[in-house]
Amino acid sequence: VTTAPASTTPIERVTIGLLGCGTVGGALAGLLHAQRSTIVARTGVEIVIGRVAVRDPSKVRDVDLPAEVFTTDTMGVVEDPDVDMIVELIGGVDPARGLVARALDLGKPVVTGNKALLASHGEELYTAADAAGVDLLFEAAVAGAIPLMRPLRESLVGEPVSRVMGIINGTTNYILTKMSEEGASYEDALAEAQQLGYAEEDPTADVEGYDAAAKAAIIATIVYGAIVQADEVYHQGISDITADDIAVAARLGYAIKAIAVVEAAGGGGDGPAEVAVRVHPALVPVTHPLASVRDSFNAVFIEGDAVGELMFYGRGAGGAPTASAVLGDVIDAAVNHINGSSARIGPLGRAIVRPIDELSSAYYLSLAVMDRPGVLARVADEFGRHAVSIRSMEQHGLGDEARLIFITHTSQESAVQATLAALRELDIVSDVHSVIRVVGDED
Ligand SMILES: NC(=O)c1ccc[n+]([C@@H]2O[C@H](COP(=O)([O-])OP(=O)(O)OC[C@H]3O[C@@H](n4cnc5c(N)ncnc54)[C@H](OP(=O)(O)O)[C@@H]3O)[C@@H](O)[C@H]2O)c1
After folding, report:
1. Is the pLDDT of residue 398 over 80?
2. How far apart are CA 23 and CA 196, in angstroms?
3. Cβ distance 406 to 283 under 8 Å?
4. Which residues pair with 383 in a beta bridge?
5. Which is higher by pLDDT, 406 or 399?
6. How many Cβ atoms are within 10 Å of 34's Cβ, its own excluded?
7. Arithmetic mean of pLDDT over the chain
8. Cα 231 versus chain centre, distance
9. Quick count: other Cβ atoms within 10 Å of Cβ 24?
10. Which pLDDT score is estimated for 390?
11. pLDDT over threshold 60, residue 415
């Protein structure tokens, strides 16, 4: 949005129906109010909140909106002829799905921050937006405040992106930062994150990787122009990571981070895009830009054949930061609405998502073995038999037992799993402590 209106240009008005006025919706109302004159001056469009649907209209809210705009009638807001555009900030799949679909059917642009909805029902909604020729914008759905969807959709639309790696869940990054900087246990770091409001009372969605999987699915869809759904994304949580893993990794020159990896895996051209999408803890070299992303911050690192390397960094959540991303979409959609245009996404075909077994990665492996002659050779033999080549190895004696730490070269997942299965069968191997992928220094 770059053109300032001539002084004689009449101000156009766009009326929003806001669905949800909680953490993000409330902050959006505040920002729209505070930025009103700037928005009018820069775009010639006045954006007003006409109606607001919430669960409990009697709740006291820190927003400068008259009581009469609040209602519980969500569909009434969507269908109100005075409402030009819908901003969905309720969250979850239902009732958001039906409300967004209805708005698009009515030809009303939609802005949403709802990753759960897009990662499960994006296909039908992108198709509906395309058919209606209206915007469906969702900058806030992935990495909160960070402008990511628009750069991916617009600036990088012609870029042959080979890989996107992201720290896209602030809760797990906060927990891993506490564990690495203060030596905290996973349990203590999680409890602190909960006290500070960074983690939910039930932290499963964050710590087991569901939240990041939904966001990774959306990134893959936008980068490769083909639908990937959250349930197609391999995800592994951080609850098995120990303070000891973090200390050993640090000694070897790595940070442990919860990483989403989205990669091209063949296909394209006239056929469907083939992609690899996964979310898991990973050793990242301390020299990699993602290793320095601390606390609850998010960052997304993009590798493209022409562009080289790019990194986007910022707040992945929080009322005001997320509302900032929503506001950018609202202004874009309002200006497009006035101009009768829209930012096209689809319709999109389905991507072929490669199963994790077929993917390759380097690995960090920590084993407890009997401390006696010939053990190392026997263990190394199992790696060789499965064509997993070892990049580095450390051995520490611990009385009758020894600890072996390996970093492998890039190897196929199925070969590494077969090696581990064989090692577990050996009576000289008493335990496989840790198996963590290594990303960012591929050979
Ligand atoms: N919070 C963040 O940092 C963040 C970051 C990125 C993306 N997002 C996304 O932004 C969206 C909103 O998140 P939030 O944190 O603002 O959520 P929130 O604080 O829980 O607010 C939800 C709002 O929706 C209303 N609501 C819930 N169910 C409803 C229903 N059935 N009918 C009508 N209204 C209903 C609630 O009404 P009451 O106020 O009456 O309860 C509340 O105003 C979600 O999709 C979330 O994933 C949030």
Report:
1. no
2. 15
3. no
4. none
5. 406
6. 11
7. 95
8. 14
9. 25
10. 96
11. yes
Cβ proximity of 106 and 78 under 8 Å = yes
Whether 318 lines ligand 1, by a CB cut-off of 6 Å, is yes
Q: Are strands 297-304 and 308-315 parallel, antiparallel or unpaired?
A: antiparallel
Cβ of 89 below 6 Å from ligand 1? yes
Using the structure block, give the residue that is written with the tokens 């190897």: 411
Mutate which of 69, 73, 90 to test ligand 1's pocket (most atoms within 8 Å of Cβ)? 90
- The answer to whether the beta carbons of residues 56 and 87 sit under 8 Å apart is no
- Specify the 3-state DSSP secondary structure of 287: coil
Strands 254-267 and 161-167 turn out to be antiparallel
How much is the pTM? 0.96
Structure tokens at 211: 């939240």
Q: What percent of the chain has pLDDT over 90?
A: 92
Helix ranges restricted to H, 93-209: 96-105, 115-132, 149-150, 170-182, 186-195, 204-207
Residues 353-359 have a mean pLDDT of: 93
Query: Catalytic: 257?
Result: no
Longest Cα–Cα distance in the chain: 89
Give how far Cα 18 sits from Cα of 339, 363, 431, Å.
Answer: 22, 47, 55
Please tell me if the CB atom of residue 109 comes closer than 6 angstroms to any atom of ligand 1: no
**CA–CA dist 223, 73 (Å, integer):** 36
> Is the peptide bond prior to 321 cis by the omega test (within 30 degrees of 0)?
no
